[in-house]
Amino acid sequence: MNIQIWLRRSLAAAVVVTGSVLGADGASAQTAQRITFEDAIGIALQQSTTIARSANTQTLNHLAVSDARMGFLPDLRVSTSGSQDLQSSGIGGASQSMNARLSSSVTVFDGFANIANLRSAQLQQEAGSMDAERTRQDVVFSVISGYLTLVEAREQVRVAEDNLSAQTEREAELAILVERGSRPVADLYQQRATAAAARSTLVEAERARQLAEVGLVQVLRLDAAAEYDFESPAITDAARDVVLDVTTLVEQALLRRPDIAALSARTDAAQQGVRAAQASRLPTVSLSAGYGANYSSAAELGLTDQLDRSRGGSVSLSVSVPIFDRLSSGHSIERANIQVDNARLTLDDQRQQVSLEVKRAVLDREAAVARLEAADARVEAAQQALTSTEARYDAGVATLFEVTQSRAAAVDATSAQVRARYTLVYQDQVLAYYTGTLNAGARLTN
Q: Is residue 372 a contact partner of residue 379, using CB atoms and an 8 Å limit?
């Protein structure tokens, strides 16, 4: 078959395939839901089940505080009872009786246990709020990670497309040269194989992009059957000359991390538990009051008169002093102290973990800067080498294999540069996450 005829047919087939793909993409784009980066943040915060569970926990903590406050108020009870005496003989026969009573009691002093319980509940509520804030940061960071993965995958697709375009162009040029007899047909066959490998690379890059979109759909908890158009946010290159002081960043993280604040609040709540346990060794003072009336059918007076004459109330003040409670108080205090010690150990572990996370993030960012600088130098050198090799090939002093190797090195360098660039952007977000400065208004720009 004439090479020019074969080339025209191949290009025509490629146009048909490309048009079919673009047509499918265009049809799906008409029904796809457009989602910006800011929209993704809002959707994730709204649909996250982790945030929903955190909100439920906050509601429970609020109820616990309300219960603790109600412990300072008196209760109020209404009680009634009735009875009927059955007699088989006697003058009076059967009789009925009834009594009603309104009573109330309040704890005047319980060794300050109620105050400790209220303060403990308030601290637990505060800790829950800090946990909720950290949960929001977790969700935002997940969206940022997903978006950066998607944007990088799209850039890798662009690199693969550019490579395929260059390989296809080289194949077309070789076909003409072979037709003229300027190049051996073996070069054309070798170039066809190289172009086919470039198409395979593009397919893999496109698959990685689609998987990145699926991952983002999972993070946002969207309908997997629907189509979405994730708009790429504007991402500027991260600054490379930033000087990071680990000590300052660690101090900042320990002050701003919500999880550290939550554990600190829980440690204080555990200390209030010790106060509540110690209160069991102190006297308890309670005040009670009651008011009621009685009625009996055996009495000669009517219902109204009986209730009026039998009215009566009482007020009592009781004091309870613990003398021996089978060591229950001592054991309760010991358990409460152990809980305080465990809370402090957990807080210390978390502080250590935060320090290591920040230190590691700083080191990773410095390494990312170095990798990006090396990648830039590699791209420049690879492009120069490719230009030189292509010129030598056109002059007939280099082989096609050398050109193929040079172009592969240039493509690999460009791909590594893309990866290094977004790794550095990602490390900035990691550092913000570990220092506790990440929020729902996060941006992927510097």
A: no
Give the pairing type, strands 284-296 and 95-109: antiparallel
**Biggest CA-to-CA distance, the chain:** 141
Write the single-letter amino acid at 135: T
Bridge partners for 318 per DSSP: 286
> Residue 441 corresponds to which tokens in the numbers above?
């208004």
Q: Which helix (H) or strand (E) holds 361?
A: helix 328-394
- In sequence order, what E strands does 110-239 have? 228-230
CA distance 261 to 413: 45
- Cα–Cα distance for residue pair 356/392, rounded to 1 Å: 53
Give pairs for 244-247: CB < 8 Å, separation 24+. Answer: 244/362, 244/365, 244/366, 244/431, 246/358, 246/359, 246/362
pLDDT digits (tens, 9 = 90+) for 273-315: 999 999 999 999 999 999 988 877 767 676 676 667 778 889 9
Q: Which domains does the chain have, with CATH numbers?
A: 30-72+110-282+322-435 (1.20.1600.10)
**Residue 297 carries which DSSP code?**
T
The CA distance from 30 to 368, in Å, is: 39
Between CA 84 and CA 184 the distance in angstroms is: 121
Strand pairing partners for 98? 82, 295
Residue 441 contacts residue 231 (beta carbons within 8 Å): no
Query: For the whole model, what pTM was predicted?
Result: 0.84
Tokens of 84: 């009927």
Q: How far apart are CA 198 and CA 310, in angstroms?
A: 103
- Asked whether 202 and 164 are in contact (CB, 8 A), the reply is yes
In sequence order, what are the residues at sequence separation of 6 or more whose Cβ sits closer than 8 angstroms to the Cβ of residue 105? 74, 75, 286, 287, 288, 289
